[in-house]
Automatic annotation (TrEMBL):
Record-linked SUPFAM superfamilies: vWA-like
Keywords assigned: Glycoprotein, Protease inhibitor, Secreted, Serine protease inhibitor, Signal
Family: Belongs to the ITIH family.
InterPro entries: ITIH, VIT, VWF_A, vWFA_dom_sf
Top-level taxon in the UniProt lineage: Eukaryota
Species per Swiss-Prot/TrEMBL record: Haplochromis burtoni (Burton's mouthbrooder)
VIT domain span: 50-179
Pfam families, alphabetized: VIT (PF08487), VWA (PF00092)
Name the record gives this protein: Inter-alpha-trypsin inhibitor heavy chain 3
GO MF entries: serine-type endopeptidase inhibitor activity
Subcellular location: Secreted
Amino acid sequence: MCQLVPHVLPLPSLSSCVYLVHFTDVIHQHIVFHLFLHLTFGQPIRSPKPLFKNVPPVFAQDDWDIYSFHINSTVTSRYATTVITSRVANRMNESKEIEFHVRIPKNAFISKFRMFIDGQVYDGVVKAKEQAQQQYSEAVSRGESAGLVSSVGRTLEEFKTSVTVAAHKKVTFELTYEELMKRTRGKYELQIHARPMQPVSDFKVDVHIQEEAGFSFIDVKGEIKITDLSVSHESKELNSFCFQAWVYFYPTVDQQKMCDSCSDQGMNGDLVIIYDVNRDNGLGHIKKSDGYFVHHFAPSDLPRVPKNVVFVIDQSGSMSGRKILQTRTALIHILNDLAEDDHFGLITFDGSILHWKRELVQANSKNLESAKNFASNIQARGSTDINEAVLQGARMLNDHSREGSASILILLTDGDPTSGVTNLENIQSNVRQAIAGKFPLYCLGFGFDVDFKFLEKMSLQNNGVARRIYEDSDADLQLKGFYEEVATPLLTDVTMIYVGGTNLTQTNFSQYYNGSEIVVAGEITDNNIETFTPQVVAISVKIDLIIFSKSNKTVESTGTVSDDRIQRVWAYLTVKQLLDKELQLSGPEKEKVKKEALELSLKYSFVTPLTSMVVTKPPGENTDVLHKPKEGETPQRWQPRVDQSFSRQYLAPSSLGRVGLTD
């Protein structure tokens, strides 16, 4: 077992927290490597503003005490189950309302919430959203106070609830969430947000990772920095015998108060574990248990497929100012990264369409210099004709059919269509007909004025994805980062075949990119591993058909011990894909898919956009309902119950302007 252990060393000054992180290889009984890094927390809050309107200031914390705060995350084959446990004592001679407030990754599904009060256990119940909303409305009609609303940020969502705790009594909050980690640019990232909001005597973060393929590297980062302290770190490669890692972080009460923004409010920051696993160019890693399997396919050392890419850039008036400047900067960086055997085109649009060149051209130095000059002179003006711009981009790719290449269409816009065809369904239909399944469309929505649901549906209908670009100082890096995810196609027309498999998740993929991963899960017919035969068929460079079969890599089994984790991976992935499919459909087909996703969500107690969790409380308490927010929703402001004589808001001021915005 490999242990990644932050050990607290003597601090050189009160403004720095230095940790020694090391891995110990138990098999060989020697230290594999040592790694020094600064894990630091908090930004200085010089002019704090409340996150929420009408939130009273945080009181001196002498009436209640979070005496224990534990985060325990277990990762097996890239599927993470995280449990946050907070134990709070009411030190007052009267009842107090105590709030539990944590942040979790947006990609996760909450699967359990419990409260332990005075020997009683109160389990949250996952219900269909309409049913939960009815229960909430009935509570409101009885004059009970507001419920619970989650907010959307870049990578995190918020969970909030509260309960009244009797004098000198205790409450334990326990929240469980699950997520399938996504491989992006050659790595997985597990984000743990630690925010108890007061120093805690028993503060522990434990992360246990088990990967039977073995780790190729692992790294730990603290996202938030202390003023004038740079974060230094280096990732380390491991030997192939390292299959388990343990990361733990146990800061003392004093250390929790040393960062600039902590003071008496304790820790507020992220611990991010970054790693990848050993892999080859074979079939990949397949695990099975109790009649289910999950297949991780990510070959690496394959020749890159030359690409044809068209960038369709919104230059309407709403893009003026910093947005157009950042777009220019990102586009010039992206052009610099094109390989010479790539072909590309540029289109800018407002109410009219402007081509840099009418046809795709090779990414040689002369063309790139001309394109960068064009990009640097993009000016914001006019209205927004999305329909014609995307159709022109699709035409350019359709007219440039090149054997042994992969085509990509990328749209960047910050608003709704205001000229030309403006009916959203008509635009989606026109684009779908023009692309005809021949290449993916990636839509980047800049800011919150854009109709993200429209972009998301249009992307999914054309084998792509939509991504929000946040209006921050790093927007150009966000744009460049997205491009890097699709910059290097390695395979096209990927088909995953499973003889002896059923109830499969998505098995056809238009393209596979370097640094990404294809994940498929399903059931093994009659749980017969002997008749289960996986195979992957794809097209590599120069139209060579490439087949990955069982002979490359045998199927791994988790053994005969009952374990529902593989089944939950299947359920998680199936629900995610059904929700994407439901967005694309209409009429009876839409309702059928929606019903299937709802049934699975209820069966596995996942809080999804179709379900809600009703927080069960002692008799007489207010009703709280947790809804899963959608990416397309504008962040909402939470209006808390305000009764300063009887309630406590378990919150702290923040310098961030948007609710729940966490990079």
